[in-house]
Amino acid sequence: MCISTRSLFRPFLTAGVVLISSVAGGGFAPAQSLDDFKRADGVKGCPGIPYPELARRCMDTMVDVHESCKVVKWSCRDGSLQSIRTNTQIAQDIARDIETKENALTTEETNLESAKEADKPAIVNRISDLKKAIGEQQEKKKAAEERAVGARKETELRLAFGTKCLELRGKVNGYFKEGIDRAKSDAGKSDVSPESKRIIQNNMSRWEAESGEHKQVMNDVTDGIKYCQDWLQGR
Fold it and tell me: 206, 198, 218: which is closest to 179 by C-alpha?
């Protein structure tokens, strides 16, 4: 039975949100105390967002990121993918060879009708050899075509997963951006002490760095998607 990683990660996800939201009384109101930011200080990833409802959405999405970006095989660069172009070319080359042999077979069958009795055994042998060779080539052609079709389907599947991965990572990056915007707003409030502003700024600096790392991963995924698209086109 296949168990979704979402159900496997759910206990850890819930625990992370409970930790973040404890000061807020278990609710999901925006962080309003310095303790929220102190608790988030130094915590990497989604659990380090001091806004509980935002952290929960971020961690929920990261479970999907794990499934779409890490569990499934979506890269077309790993060397396990059959070449659509190569196998299509093999099938086409074999088709031309079959046509040549079929023309030769037609010629031999025509010759057999008017051949002398002494020449017929040799012609019959050539006809038999040609039929055997044609049959073998037809099997090879079929196998190459099936490999090409299979490679196309697998490439399309990996491309779909890669596109989903990019979409989900974009959402996660959006949560960090939203956290930064909220923190800027909190830091700008008149009743916030210099010490509080310093801690909030430390949080924002870390989020911006993590957001930059996430953007780089998104760029890598974008390049991977382009590679799959080129592979699909037989490039």
Answer: 206
User: Structural domain of residue 164, as residue ranges?
Assistant: 5-80+159-232
Please write the tens of the pLDDT for every residue from 60-76: 999 999 888 887 778 88
Give yes or no for a contact between 113 and 106, defined as CB atoms under 8 angstroms apart.
no
Distance CA 174, CA 168 (A): 10
Sequential DSSP letters for 37-77: HHHHTT--SGGG-S-HHHHHHHHHHHHHHIIIIIIS---S-
| Span 166-219, pLDDT tens digits | 999 999 999 988 988 888 888 888 777 888 788 888 888 888 888 888 888 899
Using alpha carbons, select from 42, 39, 14, 17 the residue that is nearest to residue 28: 17
CATH number of the domain where residue 40 is located: 1.20.58
Q: What is the pLDDT of residues 79-102, one digit of tens each?
A: 888 899 999 999 999 999 999 999
Q: Are residues 135 and 26 in the same domain?
A: no
Distance CA 208, CA 200 (A): 12
